[in-house]
Amino acid sequence: MRIGVFGGTFDPIHRTHVDIGRAALAHKGLDRVLFVVSADPPHKGGDEITPADDRYAMVEAALKSEPGLEPCDLELHREGPSYTADTMKALRGLYPDAEFFLIIGQDALIDLPGWRSPQGILDEARLLVLPRPSEVRAIPAVLEGHYEMLPFAESLMSSTDVRRRLAEGDAAADSLPPAVFDIVQERGLYHAHR
Questions:
Q1: Please, are residues 68 and 32 in contact by the beta-carbon 8 Å criterion?
Q2: pLDDT digits over 109-118, tens only?
Q3: 15 CB contacts (<8 Å, ≥6 apart)?
Q4: How many CA atoms does the CB half-sphere of 48 hold within 13 Å?
Q5: DSSP state, 147?
Q6: Is 81 helix (H, G, I), strand (E, B) or coil?
Q7: Whole-model pTM above 0.85?
């Protein structure tokens, strides 16, 4: 089984996230892409994050009609920071024979040698990298042979921008899958108008 692993806070999940999952699925002929909702991302220290149950509900809703794209709540059941190395180890326990592809952005790729247990990640998964044409930093030589770029046009859409728009009273309906838009409205997330 070939499994893509796409982690994030998904606060909120938006259309580009779903497009990335579709692109990975098609490009590598994956059986599934798991959208791993982060409980306590170590790189977001101090940032306010929407409660995990709301974020997971939005991911579930966004992927409900997306064949091969699945929500994953693995990190939500683990105490402490959501380290990717721990998640990959746990996934290996669940899928001992799987071939994993960890989907990350080029900026994250460059930072990966500073993550917790980078070699543990590289031992478990090949890296499928979203190009960031605006990224000017060089990819560390130690990562050569461990990654490939995912053909995907850079998008300016970000969860930060979606949250800002919602807080300003913009429905941001063009950025959110319809089912996610409904949850945002129903729960009044991001100060969206009910």
A1: yes
A2: 999 999 999 9
A3: 157, 175, 176, 177
A4: 3
A5: E
A6: coil
A7: yes
